[in-house]
Structures are given as structure tokens and as C-alpha cells.
Amino acid sequence: MKKLAFLLIMALGTLTASAQKTPHAIGAHFGGSTIDLEYQYHFSKRNFLDLTAGVFNLSDGFALQGVYNWNIKQWPGWTPRFATWKLWGGFGAGVGYYDHDDYEGAFLGPVGTLGFGFTLKDVPLTLGVDYRPMVAINLGHGDALIDRGFRNIGVTLTYRF
């Protein structure tokens, strides 16, 4: 029985260890202008692609965003047994649909990201606070500049698998 328990613990440890080294991550972002499902593809320890899909301005439409990010700085020694802290940033583009007051139709525009958070050592979870500004041009009825995405400060949680 002890051998079986030891074998199960080792197997679970191996799964957790291998999960941290894979390039894929899924998660959620809860921001001031968007609530998104998130997929990340990590090219290396230095850079990753972040794709999000969710509601824009909570009830006024939806947005799809793609952002290429760089891990600007990492601090593995701050809490060496707990987590690796990091600062990341990037830029990309977003598209979507917006329906609010006098404006209705598709939109597109540039997106940026600046985030700060940590990745746990024992579990492949990353928790962070980020700023994801987006200023978009409404291409439908009531052509205008949509600046509500400029206030998109939020929390992100991803799981690497």
C-alpha cells in the first residue's frame, strides 16, 4: 500500500512538473471594459501570444483581441519557494461589435498590455494585474472613436497545461 501511495504521489508530481513546461495556457481576464476568456501560447520564457474573446463594455458588444507580449523582467528570488514574479508588456489589435447609444457596428483598433503578477512554483497558475488599453474606430452607424476600452484595468488568471 505504501508503494502504491508513493507511486501516485510521484505520478501527480510528474504531471504538475510537466504542465509548467508546456506552451499552452487558458484563463480569464476581468477588466474595467472587458470580461474575456483567454488563451496563451508561450513561444519561450521571453515571449507569448495572448488571444482573448469576450464582452466589451460589459453589455455593449464583444471583442476579439490578439496581443504579442514580452516578459520584460522576472524576479524569481523575491519569493523563491512561492512564486516567480514578472512584468510583461506587448501590443496587438482588436476587432469586435459595439452597440451603445448612437453607435452601432463593427470596430477595430490597436491594443496594448502592461501587466505585473506571479506564477506559482508548485502549481502552473499565473495571477496578475494588468492594463489593456484599446482605442477603436467604430466602422458602423455613427462612426466614432470608442475610447471606453482605454480604461481596461483588470485581473488575469491563467493555468498552463
What brief labels describe this structure?
8-stranded antiparallel barrel; 161 residues; mainly beta
Blueprint (SSEs and pairs):
Elements: H1 2-19, E1 24-31, E2 34-42, E3 47-56, E4 61-79, E5 83-100, E6 103-120, E7 125-131, E8 136-138, E9 144-146, E10 153-160
Antiparallel strand pairs: 1-2, 1-10, 2-3, 3-4, 4-5, 5-6, 6-7, 6-8, 7-10, 8-9
Helix run count: 1
Main sheet properties = 8 strands, antiparallel, barrel
Give the % helix: 10-25%
Structural class: mainly beta
Q: Which stretches are poorly predicted, pLDDT < 50 over at least 5 residues?
A: 4-8, 14-20
Share of residues in strands: over 45%
Strand order of the largest sheet: 1-2-3-4-5-6-7-10
Outline: elongated
Order of helices and strands: HEEEEEEEEEE
Give the number of DSSP strands: 10
Radius of gyration: 19 Å
- Overall pLDDT level: 86
The rounded distance between the terminal residues' Cα atoms is 30 Å
